[in-house]
Design a protein that fits this description.
Blueprint lengths: L3 E6 L4 E7 L1 E6 L2 E5 L6 E5 L2 E7 L2 E7 L2 E5 L3 E6 L2 E3 L5 H15 L5 H21 L5
Helix pairs in contact: 1-2
Amino acid sequence: MATLKLEIVTPEAKIYSEDVDLVTLPGVEGEMGIYPMHVALLTQVTAGEVVAVKGGQGLHLAIGEGFVQITGERVAIMTDMAIRAEDIDENRADEARRRAEDRLREKLSDEEMVAVNASLINSLAQLKVKRRGRS
């Protein structure tokens, strides 16, 4: 069976690099499913959940905004944040969400607003991935 090389890179490190059977990721126009031999594509990704399926097992990661380059053999995600579900500290992510929401109530410059919104979006993505499957 054909596979894809999935690479997820942040400014700090290469977070993931494995051959997988399928990748789902949050595109700007909705969730995308990528199989081997996918048409070449370069597009934006939004903060949300990436699922890498390998041998029937799913690996779940929270990612921030960024870009994805897709070829028939490779999916390369460049993002400002990527954290495996098991590495997410739910309490820290929830606290970051609360701090960002509190900051948004203050009078902020446009630059500060962008940074606070990015922080809020990233913490919400982490919480979504960590709480996946709960009622």
